[in-house]
Design a protein that fits this description.
There is one protein chain. With 128 residues, the protein is mostly helical. It is globular and about 45 Å long. It starts with 9 loop residues before the first helix and ends in an 8-residue tail after the last helix.
Amino acid sequence: MDEIQLGVPKPLLDSLPEDDAGAKQDMQRAVEGYNARVDGAIRATDDDGEAAARILDIIEHFEDRIERFHAFVPELRAWGQSPIFAIAWRNLYADLIEQLYDHEWLAAQLDRERNARLVEDGIRLSDL
């Protein structure tokens, strides 16, 4: 298994307002924590499938966060506030998922694990 190192994309950091360095630091700290979780998931087992299952749990957390921040965007606009931070966090989580799928060994295992979970839940691929 290759080592996985997640990062905050520079264009995302550059899109944030210059006067708010706190958001940039928050994102970098959050990604450091996710790096620790991913590293822990990999180190906890020697089996690629088990590691992928643990990392898929993290990805599902990211997907929940994407939905949450996506829902904030129209609400913030309705209140006349800038949704830039909600958009930035939403995009960060989407990019982290993409970074995980960039690792070929992991992408294949994640797809297998997702399919196994679909079948386990009683959902057939033909239902999608």
